[in-house]
Amino acid sequence: MKRILPLLLCLLLAGCSDWERTTFQTLSASKATIDGAQAAYEARTIPHNQCAYNIINKAKAAQTLAVDAMMTYETTKTGTAQSVVEADLAQLSPIVASIGTLGTSTCQTTTSNVQDTDWPIIVGIEMRPK
After folding, report:
1. Which of 20, 42, 43, 120 could form a disulfide with 16 if both were Cys (CB 3.0 to 4.6 A apart)?
2. Residues with Cβ < 8 Å from 75, sequence gap 6 or more?
3. CA angle 74-76-78, nearest 5°?
């Protein structure tokens, strides 16, 4: 929650640009989708398999990366920081979209932009080099 507080303040104080508002909404929606998938996985309402595990962990790692990038942007307000946020959201989007395959027999572990080796995950912690 501490990480999202500056974003909430931006929205509440109406000092956000349309891009910032849309980005916050995107991050909120993706978090809700990921949390729902995690809950369904733990409740075993979706298959408990490696594919589902990988997708959920990739999504959590990508979400954290995008939120961290947005926090950096909110601190610096530079074009470079905005580009990083946009790149991270571009990585997050197909992973979150793949959550829709979790309940099917054709669970997709990779997306067009992200390969399994791009996001090594150990116990839910993203290990991408900085």
Report:
1. 20
2. 6, 81
3. 105
The CA distance from 107 to 84, in Å, is 29
pLDDT, tens only, 14-37: 578 999 999 999 999 999 999 999
DSSP label of 76:
H
The residue whose two tokens read 């997708």 is: 55
d(CA 4, CA 93): 19
Task: Quote the pLDDT of residue 126.
Answer: 40
Write down the residue that tokens 């309940």 correspond to.
103
Place of tokens 């791009």: 118
Place of tokens 């090594």: 120
Helix runs in 5-128, H state only: 5-12, 18-42, 50-76, 79-98
